Amino acid sequence: MKRSAFPELAEVQAVKRQEKHIENAAPATLMRPVSPPTIARKASKPGPRLSAVEAGELTVDDHFALFSSKLLEASRTVLPGTSRISHAAWCELYQHNLNPQGRHFVIHQHDHPVAGTHYDLRLQCNGTSSISFAIMYGLPGDPNSRRLSRNATETRVHNLWNHLIETASHSTGSMLIWDTGEYSILPYRESKQAPKSSSEESDHSGPINSQHGLSESQKLHDAFQQGRIRIRLHGTRLPHNYTVSLRLSKDDYRSEQPGPPWWQRKKLSPGPARRETQQTSSSESESDPSTSSSAPFTVLNKDQLTSFRRTASPSLKNHHTTAGHISPSDHSSTSRKRPTKPTFLHTNHPSEPNSVNKVSNITGAHSENENENKDEDEDELETTRLTNTYPGGATNTISSIHQRRWFLTLDRHNSGFVHQLNKATGHKRWVRRWSVDDDTRDGFERFHVLGREVERSVVTGRLARDILRDEGVEGFVPRGGWRGVVE
């Protein structure tokens, strides 16, 4: 057999003949006896974004069903040495407290892009709502720490279903459930003095008051009005008998909600009526120093404050006239009238000569609708500010005031510690107390809150970055500079 002078060329030609044969061959589907029918598969529709539900952009009928199913799907494997609550126990815990006497609590780790990492303590105050405190470095866990106290700032009254949230977005960052459970209110020592910021006062003020027959939410209401709260948190992560004290700052006894931020204030036209109002208000402020603009509020005694006497927030229907004692004549934002809809003067066909007038009116109607939507959003923000509640069913029955500052301290005595002298060093330290009843030690081993890179959810076992990834948030840049309290 004669060999080809170019064997490589022969191989290439053979490959081309094989490819041409494959192209001319009948499709494999026609070689079957009967071609199977095409099955139309429905594309799985993604559920509502949890961040949109949390922000109020989407409305759902059953928050519990939505969040419980989403968090069950996102649960990770339980790692050794981590605190976890089973999904069934978590659901039962929440549903058990869906009543006016409920005492549910949650601690959220919130990694906000602007405010940074902080921890929100939310305490159920009625059947649908919870008060909230923002704590910068989380709860204290070392009885001998040099930084035992924390600033706890009142925020908005949240809906109770917010206790179920784990979500993330570019605008709000990530949020995970750091701990959850039920709370108990312990009595506080009666005192006529204003709250102090020292930790010793909380350690030695023993349980004197008795509140038998009251639910824990009612005890919370009474303690909140007094500006002194001793609360024991029965959580999943927190140790047994963990107790903290909250005291309202003596410089922050405020009775009214703060004014709107500068970007929400209305720019009023300097007309004659406006100038007359400015002159009248300026003359009144000169005659009465307590109403001058240099002082944002007047510091009053506790007995003079309406917030400590109110038992419920004003109705949303007449919040302009009752909430914070504001009448329509006090603020132009509340007395603002919405513009009326434009009247269509021309009804001719667009092909007629005067059709441009109708088109301009249609454009004006579109812009008018945008203005109305903007007015509705502004009214909702104003309602939120005046009532200090988020929309969706929350009610401020406890008279929470936005941005009031409290002091939070570990109650070492009620947490199971005693002050003991170390004879070797001559210094006193807080040590775990021996229990005479069962010959065991009270108290707990110290712990530290270490932030978004370390702390995991007690419900799903996720880190903050896991929640960002699960929610499809890419390129999120967290705020730096946060450091946990370890000294």
From TrEMBL:
The lineage of its organism: Eukaryota, Fungi, Dikarya, Ascomycota, Pezizomycotina. Residues 108-244 form the DNA ligase D 3'-phosphoesterase domain. This is DNA ligase D 3'-phosphoesterase domain-containing protein. InterPro entries: LigD_PE_domain. Residues 207-217, 345-366 have a biased composition (Polar residues). Residues 191-220, 252-300, 312-395 are annotated as: Disordered. Residues 278-294 have a biased composition (Low complexity). Residues 191-204 have a biased composition (Basic and acidic residues). It comes from the Eukaryota. It holds the Pfam family LigD_N.
